Structures are given as C-alpha cells and as structure tokens.
Amino acid sequence: MKPPVERGLTTRLRTAKSRSTSSQRWLERQINDPYVRAAKAAGWRSRAAFKILELDERFKLFKPGQRIVDLGAAPGGWTQAASKVIGDRGRIVALDLLPMEPMAGVTILQGDFSEQAGEDAVLEALAGPADLVLSDMAPNTIGHNATDHLRIMALVELAADFARRVLAPDGAFVAKVFQGGTERTLLADLKRDYAQVRHAKPPSSRKDSAEAFVVAQGFRGNNAAGRDPEAG
C-alpha cells in the first residue's frame, strides 16, 4: 500500500491560547498528518485502518470466510478494514469498553474481554473458534516510559491469553506493543504456541511513536501450552 503524498505547508491552529501545549501539539499533528487526511477522504473511521492493511499486505492476515475478533476496536478502523477485505463470507466480532457506531456485517459488543461475561459474549457471537485475534489496545500513558511499557505489556499478555483460548489451530494473533518489543517471557510463550512470531512497524505508524506490532501466525492448537488433551 502506497503512503499518502504530503502536500502543502504545515497548518497551525489559530485558537491555541485556550489549549494546553500538549493539546496544541496533538491537534496540529492531527491536522497535518497525511494519513489522517487520507483516512477521512477514503471514509475510514481512523488512520489505524492503514496500519492493519499494511500489516495484511506484508503478512497475509485476512482470508475469505474467517472468524475474526477485534479487541479494543473503537472507533473501528481495524474492524472496518477487515470487513472490507474479507467481505460477507466471514464473521467479525468487535469488542470495546467504549460504545462503537454500528457497522454492516459486524457484531459489535460493549464489554471487557478479560471478564468471563465478555469472553462468553464473543464466543457466542463467533459461533465457533476464531481464525484471527486483533488487538490495537493501548492504555492511557503517563509519560513514564517504564510504567507505560508495563501497562501495554499487561494488555498484550491478557490479549495473548484470550487468543490462546479462542483461536482455532493455525490461527493468528496481532497485537500492539511499545518500544522494547515483546517481553522475553511472553515472546517465549508466543514462539511456543505459534509457528512464526515477528515484530513489525508499518509505514503508517508515526516515526516518533514507540508503537510496533507483534504478529504471531500458525497457532499450534489448544494443547500448545501443555494442556492435557484428555482433560475437560
């Protein structure tokens, strides 16, 4: 996927006096971001759609007929991109703590995937095991790198555990991580559970952002973590 072409001069806000410095910087970055403008022009719900499409272009994540779970889906950029690629032959369940505008062909749930009720609702909506679990979740950052890293990794670990429970054999898991990559223990678990684990930073991810993505493919099945195949 070719990146949007940047044209024109940088736009500065004229009503900056009532805003904090950080708010001013964020708004100016949004206004001058070519991916934000391109997303709006293309009808994407967010610029994040470009990230998952670029990851799909590289790793071939989407296939017709898939069952997909999108965790932390709001406002729906990843969900929208997945839906357009796989068409109406698959099934997509989008879950978030926040409300999300309806989307044709997508089951949207509001809840917490880490709670049993949230997981049960996802499984009921999927009507079968998932082929792909996506997580673009990120906690609110506080500006302390070590703490922010721990928070994002806690979310990734929860999402990875969720994926382990709901994925079909040969399924895939994609999650946002921050600078420092995936923690050694989690990375070892992913390499045990999946045939291939790689990190990637798509072109649409801002250069000054610490975000990257872990892409785990070829799930070995529910017994990969040493579960007793005769149990339960």
TrEMBL record:
Ranges where the Ribosomal RNA methyltransferase FtsJ domain occurs: 44-219
GO terms classed as biological process: methylation
Record keyword Lipid biosynthesis present: no
GO MF terms held by the record: methyltransferase activity
Swiss-Prot/TrEMBL catalytic activity: uridine(2552) in 23S rRNA + S-adenosyl-L-methionine = 2'-O-methyluridine(2552) in 23S rRNA + S-adenosyl-L-homocysteine + H(+)
Active site annotation, chain numbering: 176 (proton acceptor)
EC numbers: 2.1.1.166
Key words, A-Z: Cytoplasm, Methyltransferase, rRNA processing, S-adenosyl-L-methionine, Transferase
Subcellular location: Cytoplasm
S-adenosyl-L-methionine in keyword set: yes
Location, primary (coarse class): cytoplasm
Residues that coordinate or bind S-adenosyl-L-methionine: 76, 78, 96, 112, 136
Record-annotated membrane-spanning stretches: none
One Pfam entry name: FtsJ
Purpose of the protein: Specifically methylates the uridine in position 2552 of 23S rRNA at the 2'-O position of the ribose in the fully assembled 50S ribosomal subunit.
Stored HAMAP family: RNA_methyltr_E
Family according to the record: Belongs to the class I-like SAM-binding methyltransferase superfamily. RNA methyltransferase RlmE family.
Protein's recorded name: Ribosomal RNA large subunit methyltransferase E
Organism: Roseomonas elaeocarpi
Lineage of the organism: Bacteria, Pseudomonadati, Pseudomonadota, Alphaproteobacteria, Acetobacterales
